[in-house]
Each structure stands twice: as C-alpha cells, then as structure tokens.
Design brief:
It is found in: Cell membrane. It is a multi-pass membrane protein. Keywords: Cell membrane, Membrane, Transmembrane, Transmembrane helix. This is DedA family protein. There is one protein chain. By secondary structure, this protein is mainly alpha-helical. The protein has one domain. Helix 3 runs antiparallel to helix 8, helix 4 packs antiparallel against helix 5 and helix 5 packs across helix 7.
Length: 205
C-alpha cells in the first residue's frame, strides 16, 4: 500500500493527497498514518510545500467526513429510535438508549469531534453520530477542520523530520489504533452482557 500511496502522490501531487485523505475517511483501511508522513517526506525532499501538504490533508479529511455525516443525518434519531424499539431487543437496545446517546452527543459532541479526529480507530466513525444527532453542519465542519488540521500537521511534520524513515510513524501509530478498537469492542461486549443480565433479572422478577 505504501508504494501505491507514494505513486499516486507522485503522479497527482497535492490533489493526490486530498484524494487519499478523502478515501481514508470513507475507507479506514487506507491509513492517514501512511499518507501524511509520506507527503511530509516529499516536502523534506523539496518536492512539495509542507504548508500545502497540511492544507490539502486537512481539506481532504474534512471532505471525507461528509458522506458518513449525511448518512447519519438521513437516518436520524427518530428512525433509529423507532428501529430500536421494534427490532433492537436482540441487541438489548431500546429507543431510550438511543435518546440518551443522542443527548450525550448534543452535550459533548463538539469536543468529541474535535479530539476524536485525532484518535486512530474512531476518527472516521464520529461522523455518523454527529449526523444522527443533527449537529449543525457549520459547527461540525469547524471542529472537524481543527482536529483534522492538528492531526495532519503532526503526521506531516513527523514524516518531514524522519525523512526516509517516515514509515516508522505508521509502525508506531498502528498498534495504538488496534488497542483503541479493541477497547471499544470490549466495552461494547461488556455493555451487551450487562444489559442481557438486567433484562434477565427484570424477566425473572
């Protein structure tokens, strides 16, 4: 994948960075931890401007958040609540749970988007709850842009500083991403088991 990313940037320049970062948000297996350090290395060679690398990475990342945001927006809280009340029993999920989650996102969503855009493993997925909770698009874009700019700048500068060893960034970040995803899976499993037990207790009573 490293060669493909490098070849695309070599042939398309800044537009290649933008396109790759859009794809990274829609298809997370294409990691920004490879894209931006590689672009930073290109800037270190003098082939690109570091400022433009960060700008195009940020722009591509923000554009890439929009498909999932609009999917979440189209689905919406009301439809999700109705679905959960009708079909969510096997997931121990109710409309009330959805409303609680939506209320949480309404309260902390801006911070979740801002900091979540810098967290591997969940940065792409935050667009869905943002859309479902109907976070205003300008607000979503502003916080996404700030978080994406910080993330893109950190990765690009790391590639710039490491030079030919820019691929070490992905080696360091990838385990962190796996740990975060693992913790999310464990947390979801624990919540599922707890709700099953609670349902069993209510039924037994």
């Amino acid at each position: 994948m490293t060669d493909w990313i490098q070849n695309l940037m070599d042939s398309m320049g800044y537009l290649g960075i933008l396109l790759l970062m859009v794809l990274e948000n829609v298809f997370p297996p294409i990691p920004s931890e490879l894209i931006m350090p590689s672009a930073g290395f290109a800037a270190a060679r003098g082939d690109m401007s570091l400022g433009m690398v960060v700008l195009m990475g940020t722009l591509g990342s923000v554009i890439g958040t929009l498909p999932l945001y609009y999917i979440g927006r189209a689905f919406g809280e009301d439809k999700l609540v109705a679905w959960a009340d009708k079909h969510g029993k096997w997931l121990t999920l109710s409309g009330k749970d959805i409303k609680k989650a939506d209320a949480w996102f309404d309260r902390y969503g801006a911070g979740a988007v801002l900091f979540g855009r810098m967290v591997p493993g969940i940065r792409s997925l935050l667009s869905l709850p943002a859309g479902m909770s109907e976070m205003p698009l300008p607000k979503f874009l502003i916080y996404s842009a700030i978080g994406s700019a910080l993330w893109s700048a950190a990765l690009a500068y790391a590639g710039y500083a490491l030079g030919e060893n820019y691929d070490r960034v992905e080696q360091y970040v990838a385990p962190v991403s796996k740990v975060i995803v693992g913790l999310l899976v464990i947390g979801a499993a624990a919540w599922f088991i707890r709700r099953k037990r609670e349902q069993g207790s209510r039924t037994g009573g």
